[in-house]
Each structure stands twice: as C-alpha cells, then as structure tokens.
Amino acid sequence: MNLASGMLFASDSRTNAGVDHVSTFRKMQFFQQPDERLLVMLSAGNLATTQSVVSLLRQRANASSGKGERNILNVPSMYDAACLVGDTLREIVERDGPTLSQSKIEVGCSFLLGGQIRGEAPRLFNIYPQGNFIEATPDTPYFQIGEAKYGKPIIDRVVNYHTPVEDAAKCALISFDSTMKSNLSVGLPIDMLVYDKDDFGPGIHQRITEQDPYFQQLHTGWGQALREAFAALPPMRWKE
Amino acid sequence: MNLASGMLFASDSRTNAGVDHVSTFRKMQFFQQPDERLLVMLSAGNLATTQSVVSLLRQRANASSGKGERNILNVPSMYDAACLVGDTLREIVERDGPTLSQSKIEVGCSFLLGGQIRGEAPRLFNIYPQGNFIEATPDTPYFQIGEAKYGKPIIDRVVNYHTPVEDAAKCALISFDSTMKSNLSVGLPIDMLVYDKDDFGPGIHQRITEQDPYFQQLHTGWGQALREAFAALPPMRWKE
C-alpha cells in the first residue's frame, strides 16, 4: 500500500508444491542503500522462479558494484527498478519455462515492488508474470498478488489513500486472517514493513507469528465482532 | 446449502463475455414434479454450455414422458440426477469443445444440483466441469461455484449445518454483497430459493433487486457494522 501516511508491505510465508509439500519461506526481500534508497519486493507464484530473480538481482548488484552496470542498487528511479525486475523475470522464464511446461508446471510469478529512491516520491509497482507492470496511484493505492480474493473485500471497504498506516496495517492483518480461515495456501508468520516517506532507512520490519498478542487480539476480536454484527442484522423473511 | 433447517439456493445473474458484453441471465433452474420431486440447478461458467445442458435436460424430459427413458424428472435418486447432469455436460463439451478450444474459449461450466426426490432426504451435489461430482454432508453443508472466493470467509465464519435457514439466507446475501463490492463479474438481481424438507412443492423463490428493502438494509447495515467493528479494534503499534 502506498498511502499518504506511508508505505505498508505485508506478506505471508506459506509455500506449497501440492498439499503434501508445505513449507515456510519469507516472501519479502529488501534492497537497501542507506540514506539513498529502500526497495521492498514481495513475491507470489513459483518459488524457484522468485528465488532466482532475487538471487540474480543481488548477485549482479554485488558483482557490478563500482563498475557502473545497471543494477537494483544503482538504477536512478523506481520505474527503472521495475523494468529491471521485469527483465530479470523474463530471463528466468525463458531459461526455465520450456522444461517446466513439459511437466505442465507453471513457471510464472508476480512481484510487488515498492519503496523510494532519493529524488522521487515513494512508488509502488505490480509486476506481472509477463514482466510488464502497473503503478499504484492515489485512486488505487494498493495491490495484492497471490491468493488475493478472500481478503480483498475488507481492504476495499476500509482502506483509501488517506487511511493512517497504523489502520492500514490492522486491515492487512485482518485481510490475511480472513484468507487463512478459508484457504490453506496462506499461512503465518506474516512479515510486515512500514516505511515513512523520505526516511531512506531500513523501515520498521516486524514478523507476526501465531503467538503475537496483537494478532491474537485481532483474530479473536474480529471474528467476534463479525458474528455480533451478523446477529444484529435481521434474518431474511420470505414473501409467501 | 443443505442444512438441518432446510435447503437454500442463491445465484446472481451477471454474465459477461468480456467487459464490453455484460448481460443478465438467471442462473437458477427448476425441475419439478409436484408432490414427488424438486430439483434446483445453479450454474457457472460458459453460458452457451450451461444453457445447452438445461435445454437438453428439459427437452428430453418432455420427449420421453411416458416412454420410461431415463430423464431428470424420472430418475429414482438425486445421485442418478447428478449422473445425468454430468453425462449431459460431457455430451455438450464433446460437441462444442473442439471448435471453442480452437478459439481459446473455455467450454467448461459447473453446476450445483440440489433438492429432494420422494424416498430420499434432501441432497446437494457440486458437479465439476469434467462431469464428476461431490456431495455435501453435515461437515461441509454448502458449496459455491463461480466467483466464490471473495464471499467465502463470511460463510465459513457463520454458517454450519445447524444454522437456521433464515440466517443462512442473510449470510448468502452478505456474501454476494461483499463479492459485488470487489468484482464486477457478479451482479444483481439475486435469485434465492428456500426448500423445506419433505415439502415436495416448488419452494419459495424470491428475486432480490437493487430496490429490495431487505437487501438495502443488509448492504448498508453490514458495511457500517464492519467499519465500526474495524474502528473498535486497536491500530497496529510497531516495536521499534
């Protein structure tokens, strides 16, 4: 979410290759140059592909350090960073796609890339499996990737560009909680990061586990509030 | 939903072939023999396919009337009715599938088939695009087809086998309302039908339009209750 009050990133950490192969991997990656840029990348889709994209971005940033080649730590704008991620994704899809499609395995993945590079405002991009991308605006200040539908209605109801980031974080956690109630492919822990405009620091990262008292409070409180709100509305009466 | 308190069916009526070709079609069909059976069929997916399946089921029930051939109005059990629907679906997919797949158009569709045939309890089936099917049980007393994810969390939270059917209807409408807020492919009017066990009548059918005062009350009341419930929970505090 790219809001007037700040940027908020949240990702779960459940991965699966079939229901008998469920694991935990962080889906939030950081690329930082202190006092100059913070880029946050969230991923969904084929884990091998997302990891390869991240590894290549890091490896090339290290290798080209000082040599001036275009990399994630020196591109001059968030737009150029999104292009670079899209290009790297296309490279992996081209490399791994043919053999995967022989086994009817989906090579594709999606990324959310957000953050700020000095000289620009904070920006947020949704990078498609084909490597092209769209950018968030005040009209539509948030993106979701992956198992997005279960948790979308609550965000659509309460979040807009002027929502305080503390409330946006609450909403993101409720959205994840609703999703986890209906779908096993999303699971704790949740990584959250909040970034203040023009801070250029690492942001505040927090990992939310099952034992997190705030998450427990939301989980219990929201479920109870929904049931109470539901009970308070009148039941359907049929016109005979 | 096949509940202890009765059966409840609900379907929207939005169809689309791309965003520039949006129409209204009822997705709820009835097959009835007074005092002997009521079958209710809900559909999702390719409209030409679902309509063909329904037309063939009706045409063959009329044509074979009195001749003893197996049809939707004389099969002895709901299980056999689900087999017949599955077979008819396979027939259409075999007929229309090859030309549609040349144009990369999806021929598939899904059905929910529920109701009661004298001699049996009410039963509910979820018929897959391949023509096979599963049956609801008290553990999982409801099915959704089509654009199901947005509206699933609220059903998962409040509906179980022992929920009164008036509350289940309220929940179904809230579920549709949440879906319509996040997805344009679902739209009013909503057809609802409630059927009481061992009634063998036509059930009570109600069509809910935008002007329906009860739906308006739910729409406004639920949105407001959610915002209040959200505001009552504490905002996130970051541990620095």
Structure description:
The first copy, chain A, contains five helices and eleven strands. Chain A has helices at 47-63, 78-102, 152-158, 165-182, 213-232, and strands at residues 2-3, 6-11, 14-16, 22-24, 28-33, 37-45, 109-117, 123-127, 133-135, 190-195, 204-208. Chain A has a five-stranded antiparallel sheet, with helices on one face. In chain A, strands 1-2-10-11 form a four-stranded antiparallel sheet, covered by helices on one side. In chain A, strands 3-4 form a two-stranded antiparallel sheet. In chain A, strand 8 and strand 9 (133-135) form a beta hairpin. In chain A, helix 3 (152-158) packs antiparallel against helix 4. The longest helix of chain A has 25 residues, at 78-102. The relative contact order of chain A is 0.18. The interface between A and B is large, with 47 and 47 residues.
CATH architecture of chain A: 4-Layer Sandwich
- Uncertain spans of chain A: none
Count of the separate structural domains of chain A:
1
Enumerate the strands of the largest sheet of chain A in spatial order, edge to edge or round the barrel.
5-6-7-8-9
Alpha carbon gap, first and last residue of chain A: 48 Å
Pfam family, one (chains A, B): Proteasome
GO biological process, one term (chains A, B): proteolysis involved in protein catabolic process
InterPro entries (chains A, B): Ntn_hydrolases_N (IPR029055), Proteasome_sua/b (IPR001353), UCP009120_prtse (IPR016545)
Organism (chains A, B): Aquitalea magnusonii
